[in-house]
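[recover] target loaded
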C-alpha cells in the first residue's frame, strides 16, 4: 500500500492521436550462460508507442539450437500476449496480435503444425503457440535484428 500511495501521480501516457495496437517482440540468446549453457528469453510488448511490459529470464531447459531457444522465447512472449488480451475489456481491438521474431526457423515451426524429427526433442508445453497461430489468434512476423526491440533484454550488462 505504501508503494501505491507514493506513486499515485505516476502512470502511462497514451497520446490521443496514436493508435493503440498491441505488438509483442521476442528474442533469445543461444547458450548465453557459460556456466549451465542455458539461454535467456527476452520479450517486450508495446501498446501504441509505449512499453507496456517486458520480461528477461533464463530458460528452464538447455536449448539444443538457436531455433529452439527462440521458439521457447516466442512461446513465453505469446503466453504474456494471451494474458494481455484482457485489455479488450477496455474497448481495444486485440485480434491478430503481431508477435515479431528475428528467426525465420521459428516462424516456419509455428506455421507448420506437423511434428518433425527436428522438433520432437522440444518439450510439448512449448508447442501450444502453433495452435494459436493456425487459429489466427496470433500473427508471427519477421523483424530484422536491427529493429528487434527485445534484443535489449537478452544482453548482459558489462
Amino acid at each position: 500500500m505504501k508503494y501505491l500511495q507514493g506513486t499515485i501521480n505516476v502512470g502511462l501516457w497514451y497520446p490521443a492521436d496514436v493508435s493503440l495496437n498491441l505488438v509483442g517482440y521476442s528474442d533469445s540468446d543461444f547458450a548465453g550462460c557459460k556456466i549451465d549453457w542455458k539461454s535467456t528469453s527476452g520479450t517486450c510488448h508495446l501498446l501504441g508507442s509505449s512499453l507496456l511490459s517486458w520480461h528477461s529470464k533464463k530458460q528452464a531447459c538447455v536449448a539444443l539450437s538457436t531455433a529452439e531457444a527462440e521458439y521457447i522465447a516466442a512461446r513465453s512472449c505469446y503466453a504474456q500476449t494471451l494474458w494481455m488480451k484482457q485489455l479488450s475489456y477496455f474497448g481495444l481491438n486485440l485480434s491478430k496480435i503481431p508477435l515479431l521474431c528475428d528467426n525465420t526457423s521459428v516462424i516456419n515451426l509455428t506455421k507448420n503444425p506437423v511434428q518433425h524429427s527436428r522438433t520432437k526433442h522440444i518439450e510439448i508445453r512449448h508447442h501450444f503457440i502453433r495452435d494459436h497461430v493456425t487459429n489466427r489468434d496470433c500473427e508471427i512476423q519477421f523483424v530484422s535484428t536491427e529493429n528487434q526491440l527485445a534484443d535489449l533484454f537478452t544482453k548482459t550488462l558489462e
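[recover] notes: The first strand starts at residue 22 and ends at 29.
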